[in-house]
Amino acid sequence: MIESLLVANRGEIARRIIRTARRLGVRAIAVHSEADADLPFVTEADEAVCVGPANPALSYRNTEAIMAAAKDTGAQAIHPGYGFLSENADFARTVSDAGLVWVGPGADAITAMGDKINARNLMAAAGVPVAAGTTDPAGTVEAALDAATTIGYPVMVKAAAGGGGMGMGVAVDEAALRGEYEKVRGFAERMFGDGSVLIERFFPRVRHVEVQILGLADGRVVALGERECSVQRRNQKLVEESPSPAVTPQLRERFLAAAVRAGEAVGYRNAGTVECLLDPASGEFFFLEMNTRLQVEHPVTELVYGVDLVEEQLRVAAGLPPTFDPDALTARGHAIELRINAEDPKRFLPGPGAVKTWIEPVGEGVRVDAGYVAGNTVTPFYDSLLAKLIVYGADRAQALERARAAVAGFEVAGPKCNLPFFAELLDNAEFVSGDYDTGIVARMR
Does ATP-binding count among this protein's keywords (predicted)? Predict the structure, then answer.
């Protein structure tokens, strides 16, 4: 097993990785910005290094500062968490070239999946279903219009280099496409340094279902079930659950087989997620993208399968076999994750501030992965995620019951908080039925 691990991230995911590292006897090293010096992940690490000011470009995305911290602390490995440098192929290569262990997929796999168009083409070649769309970037608005005519309106306009729901828009006709094309291209150039645009079929009613994969040290790729991620605002996930209420045993077989093929197509190692769109009307599903990292919502898979995915990541990176039998994976029960954000529960606009009250719920089947405690300050420099509330039950009905109680028992005062939204959602007839799609939040508002 790896002996020392530098966690190149912050907040709840850094704290969560550190927790597993310490349980395994691995020396945990945190890096932090000046703004995060008092957060729990810093104090809970065995060692901590300040790598720069609040601006993430000068701290959490500062490759030179992070590599210097790894050298100064004698770190053997680096875990990037999610966001920041987690899907940066150049950083993965830098870590490996320095003789350190990169806890994630190889740089080639990150590169292959980092461009949505290239990823779609690779998946299609591997026999993974993809929606109708462009096989090359739409370099001009005229090319986008031609593609849309072939595909048929409405279409989704996407930044090819984007991820996490950023850089996309819907066009219902030619006039809308002209505007969305320029908007998405401009956003992509600013955010990703790449203005390439993908035009793809848009499904007015669709569910977002993803599969957790793990590329093992021996070369095999295994799938650890699916997660439903259809409760979203502005294409950003708010709730995830496993298993998906929309997936039958027969459909699950097809989903998992396609996800394994996707991983095998790029020689995938370590944890990753194959995201798909499911058309509930036809039962068809289509490849959306592959996230070459640990997902925010990984805890629901952990609870249903009884594994620690961070431990499995470390074992793969160290060349060790998994703790479980890959040929006897069994899902039990139902898990739901709610993303507790520092944002208002109506318009979902961020509202940072000092945390005056922080009381976490307790009870059977309740888990909280939090980045803050009372006395901390939520700053405007980073993502608004405060904590993840995860509940587990023998079935979905019990999980929902425990989720309602946990939301009622979670007290946060100071920053804005979206807990009231979850109280509303958990009593929403459409959500409770399990027959919902990505439009549910808009219908609630």
Answer: yes
